[in-house]
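Protocol step 4 of 6: structure prediction from sequence.
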Amino acid sequence: MAKKILVLATSFLDTLISHPPEEGKARKMFEELVMNSNGEIEVIYRCERKPEEALKVAEFEGVTAVIADLEKYTREFLSKVGIKSGGSLRLISRYGIGYDSVDIKSATEFGVIVTNCPGCNALPTAEWAHSTILDIAGRRILHYKTASRGKPKEGPSRIDISGKTLGVIGTGTIGKLVVNLMKGYQMKVIAYDPYPDMNWARENNVEYISVEELCQKADIITLHAASNNTIIGEKEIRLMKPTAVLVNCARGILVDYKSVYSAVKEGKIWGYGIDEIWTDKSLPIDDMNIIVSPHVGSDTDKGKIGMQLMSTQAVIDFITGNTPRYVVNKEVL
């Protein structure tokens, strides 16, 4: 029976905007793999599947590897499809950097390797954070609404960026790229990271300090932490300046959205930007300096190509008997 590779990543087969030379390369890599397998490998594309829908065991019958979007791989599901529990699944190749949607402990227990794509979409995400900072500082959406209705400016105009203090929480690849993109504004840069890169800090004149001190001193705070915990809550927001710009183009959980909503509404900070859908209808953001987007920060041609190629290479490496480069749960090997 052929080994099945299931592709669930929603943008894997997208037609790209600028048609870069790498467009379609990942699919061609799979076509070559299938062609050279003597009928032993089959690739199934279900890119139209909605990630919010719960996975069904029947969908994974005979599936050896999956290129996963943001659908949830729970303990209950993995206990039925994992190779060590009588199923066939041996690899989850995450289409992106984060792997919060996968129960890593259970994947390991049931013999499923989990990989991700570090750095695959870092620059597009950094660009989106940069853009969001400018939009919040400039109250861009609010000014658009008044101007598009034929009305003059209402409320304050915008705040300055140049010469201000930038606070970066999380100085991995994306955080460093944001610092680089913001250099033209001649800003002082302060940062927090549990694992500070002191060489990079010296080379870029960045000072590492605590989260609390950063919240007190920064004019603009941007989060790029690889954490599953809330970093900015009511206590941290109370430390911020009333002109503070807070941007989270990483993970929603990093900021307590109810606390930041109240802070913006009450004028305790200037505004908030997040690259996630705002789902709490009890907290309407109309006419507030809160900007949301449907998780599109990495959704550029460059970002898609990176995710396609890295997630595909992980599958091919595994199927051909090699160890994928970016294994999250190395203890399963």
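Step 5 (inspection) to follow. Residues 3-120+300-332 form a domain with the Rossmann fold fold (CATH 3.40.50.720).
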